[in-house]
Amino acid sequence: MSGRVLVLHTGGTIGMARSPDGYRPMPGFGAVLRRQLAGVSGLPAFDLVELPQPIDSANLQPAQWTTIAAELVARWDDYRGFVVLHGTDTMAWTASALSFMLRGADRPVILTGAQVPLVEPRSDALANLQAALVLAARLECGEIGLFFGRRLLRGNRSTKSSSTAFDAFSSPNAPALAEVGIEIGIDAGQLLPAGARDFARPVFDPRAVAVLTVHPGLSARQVDALTDDPALRGLVLCSYGAGNLPDAEPGLIDALARAVARGVVVVNRTQCAHGPVVQGAYATGAALARIGVVPAADMTLESAFAKLHVLLATHADPARVRTLFATALCGEMS
After folding, report:
1. Whether pTM exceeds 0.90
2. Which residues are catalytic?
3. What is the widest separation between alpha-carbon atoms in the chain?
């Protein structure tokens, strides 16, 4: 293994330029990036690889998680660490997915990007990339992280919380792994240790997992309409508070019970940014536990969705998926 870092450019705002129709991927991005970084002292040596077809972050599909992971794994033993340039809209979703696909990673993978393209005035691109490069070369761990603004977050604990601020991402239920200012402060006690590699390259079915947000007026018929899709194997239920549903709505719990009985793995994630699901705290939550709904603890929506996708793509038995979902695999829950 060399001391070099690999930068994998997958697409996103960082590599875009203005066009008559709005921002589009710019040609020659790699050469522009190298010129911008030339002469900057203190950066590790790096190589740049670009996906042949840049991913529009808003159009990301689960299959592209496998594409990104495959590019990293193919070069894994050749680099000290990895930086993945990615669009911000779905960066936390990809960071979460990679954390479950690259379990046991023995070197860091750091996702970053920009709110303003590299070639635009006042861009945040260079500051994010420079910090990510330094961290990828310095960290002695197997974290799949997300760096943005000033902080390195665990990827599967991060969520995009602002569409306008340079500090666009937050980690509601876990502390930052590092803070970058005049000095770089790394919280070594929070870092995941390197482990035995357990890399997965799943074949994803994009229809296998859906998200249902509980809202006033949600009916059993709406639940049945969503869960009757034969391709659906997992459902992330975004419930109220500590994991509650409106049990006064006729048949709502029964509709979820029918889905569980058909083999759909239903997980219960609170709509609140802070705090965990506690299904036994109220009677409605206890009813979900009785029918086999799995609490998602304090996982982000992105992490719960990605974890369920990866588990369903690698395990056929719903009972096994429910057990593994409730188990902390790579720092995704407290």
Report:
1. yes
2. 13
3. 67
